[in-house]
Amino acid sequence: MKKNLVNIEIKTTNICNLECVYCYQPEFQEREWLTESVVDKIIEYVRDLGMSGQRRFHFLWHGGEPTLHKVEFYKYIVKRQKEILGNTEYINFIQTNGVNLHLDLLEFMKSENFIVGISIDGPELLHDKYRKDRGGRGTYDRVVNTIKDLKMRNIPVLANCVLRKSSLEDLEELYNFFKSLDLFVTFNILLPPTGNILAPTASTMEHEYLNSEDYGKAIVYFLDRWLNDKEYMAAIDTYNYIIWSLIRNTQFGCFKAECPQYHRAFSPSGKMYVCGRFYGWPDNNLRIGYLSWDDNKSQISESYPDLLCSNCPIVELCHGGCAFDRYAMSGSFLKKEPYCVSYLIIYEYFEKHKIEIESKMRLLQDNNPHFNKIYYE
Q1: Angstrom distance (rounded) from CA 269 to CA 347
Q2: In whole angstroms, what is the distance from residue 235 CA to residue 173 CA?
Q3: What is the pLDDT of residues 341-351, one digit of tens each?
Q4: Does the model's pTM come out above 0.85?
Q5: DSSP string spanning 154-180?
Q6: Does residue 113 lie in a domain region?
Q7: Predicted confidence (pLDDT) at residue 196 exceeds the cutoff of 50
Q8: CA-to-CA distance for 81 and 223, rounded, in angstroms?
Q9: How many domains are contained in the chain?
């Protein structure tokens, strides 16, 4: 029987070496760094969570920018994982902007089977428009060089691309860009400012926000190109967690599951959240404990809004969508998911092409050695 996958999301620092215009994080007044003592407590918590033997774990190390920690810090993390977790199944994933991945860290990640997520928004003009360092310089050349270094070492790479209105001007160019690098890629939507996490520069981005329908149509375009492209043997990862859930009829990622069962997120100081996207919000009730789970403290509910979702064909798949998006947009966990239209568009496409999609996913599983690592099969 397949063990349930639990995502352990750890913010290693709230500091970043870039100044992306659309960054969703605020400028934190207090700088935080994950310490070895907090690492120990998190790993011990994971050990206890996995005592039943029915869980496996996906550690996601991110920030801020996690590569601002030196390689010695990650050597300590892996050492303690091996000492504390024993036979517990787990894998390490680090999400980085790709600007600061030095040779010693690259070699270590290779030796310890890390998966690396790289933020890249497409060709140079698209990427450098908003993803700049603190000196105002574009980062494209440095990021692409990092991707090439990772691929040369056969380290699994998953690209993360933020889709915005200007991205839609030439979807074919964007598709061919990621194909040319032979990357697994996930497309995230540029969200409007939400609640109290509005970054100082985000108010200048209103002309770039995507509505749910345009986002859904763009993802269908990418999926359709990928499905009919015999040469592209990586995956368009966006919503593949939904597709994979449907194919396997089991929990995968945030969907077909309740966040409190399958997700934990930690701040650098050890504060625990259902999801790291709540980090930085002033409402302490969005935190669910300090290195321990407090069911009485959490006000996060994964119950979908009955009157709005009860007749939806995919409600048992999405459970009302992302709890963070619901709360951020409306102040309530029981309001409608603002991007549910995109889910419906993707689902409709999947229903029409289910057999072909499953066939290509199985083909990737058999022929791309990185597929099973990225999807932790």
Answers
A1: 39
A2: 17
A3: 888 898 899 88
A4: yes
A5: T--EEEEEEE-GGGGGGHHHHHHHHHH
A6: yes
A7: no
A8: 37
A9: 1
